[in-house]
Amino acid sequence: MGPVQGSNEAVRSDFVSVVLSTTVSLVEGLRMFPQFEITGVESNGRVDYAIKKAEKIICVVETKQDLPGIGIAQNTRQSQSACDMSKDLIVHKLRETGISNF
């Protein structure tokens, strides 16, 4: 695929997509969602990729060309929002089913 450094966001996104798709295909039960909307208590927004197992978000990915500090900060907030979403899902299922082993 060639070097990704210095390329535009679409090319970087394609590169990351290939890597993530391959990785996700190696683990049973994982699914990848590009341009996934995350809504949390303190922040919300769209991430470049979310990886889910069943209904639980286990990974969020944001592609950045440079400024890794900003990317890390953004990814940290998005990860917290994903955790908030998962907690809401667990509480909802607990109320719905009465089963707490999620």
UniProtKB/TrEMBL annotation:
This is Uncharacterized protein.
